[in-house]
Design a protein that fits this description.
80% helix; single chain; 198 residues; mainly alpha; globular; 0% strand
Length: 198
């Protein structure tokens, strides 16, 4: 279980680190599209590992998700830069993490896997932050910042990771990837209603 949690945490953590660095060198729209390509990569990796061909439903689902991501995310600038490459590589790691979660959550306790995964990802984030960010002063940590940090830990990491790992012990990696691709759809809906974005 510890080994599995470390593997998953490394895949997710490396994905986040590369995505964060890549985001400083590309647009959010392109990063959203490139990150979403893990939806295409998961069934490809899964079929390679299982030495099978994808089903027609998977092909249709992946194709539709990719087209939808492109419509939601891309603009006229389709040039490829170094940041785009980093974000695409991060998508490879996110795809690997989904495959690993599906593989190990059936055999291991998904809650324990989640705790280990978050811990490893957190350590990688701390290492990146230590080398790239100044150490914040104590006065930065007011009640608002502490609330936001606790909210991010509980609802941005712990709860959704546990739910995802439990769900992936029941469904296939491809089904999980297709469900997770709804993230930019919900982002668009909430941005429209809450932030009045077009």
């Amino acid at each position: 279980t510890v080994k599995a949690g470390i593997y998953i945490g490394l895949a997710v953590g490396i994905g986040y680190v590369l995505q964060t660095i890549g985001l400083t060198m590309t647009t959010a729209a392109k990063a959203g599209f490139l990150t979403g390509l893990y939806v295409v990569l998961v069934p490809v990796f899964d079929c390679i590992l299982k030495r099978i061909f994808p089903g027609i439903n998977e092909v249709i689902g992946v194709s539709t998700a990719t087209i939808g991501l492109a419509i939601l995310s891309l603009n006229a600038d389709l040039s490829i830069g170094f940041g785009d490459v980093l974000v695409f590589i991060s998508a490879l790691f996110f795809a690997v993490s989904i495959i690993l979660i599906s593989r190990f959550s059936i055999q291991q306790d998904p809650v324990v896997l989640s705790i280990l995964q978050i811990a490893v990802t957190g350590v990688l984030g701390l290492i990146l932050g230590f080398f790239t960010e100044p150490i914040p002063s104590a006065k930065v940590f007011n009640s608002t910042v502490l609330f936001l940090v606790l909210y991010a830990i509980l609802f941005g990491s712990a709860v959704n990771t546990i739910v995802q790992n439990i769900a992936q012990s029941i469904i296939s990696p491809t089904a999980a990837a297709l469900i997770l691709v709804l993230q930019p759809v919900f982002s668009g809906i909430f941005a429209f209603f809450l932030l009045h974005e077009p």
